[in-house]
From TrEMBL:
Residues 324-414 form the AMP-dependent ligase C-terminal domain. Monomer. It comes from Imhoffiella purpurea. This is Phenylacetate-coenzyme A ligase. Coiled coil: none annotated. Its EC number is 6.2.1.30.
Amino acid sequence: MSEESTFKKPAQLDAIQGLLHSITERSPFYRDKFAGIDLAGIRSWEDFEQLPFSEKADLRDAYPLGLQAVPDEEVVRIHSSSGTTGTPVIIPYTQQDVTDWAEMFARCFTMAGVTNTDRVHVTPGYGLWTAGVGFQAGAERVGAMVIPIGPGNTDRQFKMMTDLKSTVLCATSSYALLLAEEIDRRGIGDRIHLRKGIIGSERWSDKMRQRIASELGVQLYDIYGLTEIYGPGIGISCDHECGMHYWDDFLYFEVIDQHTGKPVPEGEVGELVITTLRKQGAPLIRYRTHDLTRLIPGECSCGSPFPRIGDILGRTDDMVKVKGVIVFPALIDEILHKVEGASSEFQIMIDHLEGKDVMTVFFETLPGAHLEGVEAEVRRLCREKIGLSVVPKAVAIGDLPRSEKKTPRVFDNRY
């Protein structure tokens, strides 16, 4: 891959060299991480790709403020991961970090066609989580009216949405689906003024996208981000829905083979690795996101000069092994998309019964679907596409739980 490729630009390498020049002086984390490495010798992309990765486990070990790379007086805010699967990761932000994040988020809103005439309904949570405040700052930067309602309290959501005539909904895909179904159930679609939906935080299937877009009557945009790297707003899909543009003047993206750590060819699926080019409070170098995606070669039809990654297909740590077969939730998504009568929502339940593993797939079905036939088709495709016999369980729409945040898909009861 040449130094002049779409994804590797001289200005990015210059920024990385500048970051490496002082990183061990400023960051205790990287002082230990890069001990014994001649950072001044990093002169090419090949040199850079020899640096060790940063992992989430490393960041947890640095709790609470081991990632901080500036004096205390320069830190204006902290955000944190949820910590639901271990010690939380604390990320300090300088004023410049906050400004840069708002600028990236504003680009996302602009790419989605949001203007200062819009009224932006922000449902993601506020507080230590990055989502709510990030959406708000970006929308304010484009001059839109922000309704910072946060999650929950459905009656209040609809009162504000209808009385204030919200035009843009910001939500997780799970919560957007919950609101869409409730609007339909209450028969208040004619009182809703939404025209755009900016959705993030979790992977969602094409069927789920189509349901939300249809029931809300909006155009949807998939926004990307993670707490360790500012938060949501570092990339977004455009009107053409052919991947997500990311801001390569702020971030450098690599896609690697999750097993070998080596770069994969452009267009091939692998694990996304991110380096922050401008972050001050807690810069990250070669951070393994565990998100599965691909670099999309070529120019986008929308005309944006910013490069693209594909949709997030899942996470390497979503993987479970059943009877020696590796299963990702994304595979079940793809199968349900092909089955007539199946809807978008599903859950995977794995148990160890009578000495063997049993994987049950609960999935919602459309009204009027022939349940036995749909179950038989899901069973057939799972055996054909995954190589695994599953127990399919068709349920009615709405039977599976909805969430204001991310919806759990896999429940492994074997351990």
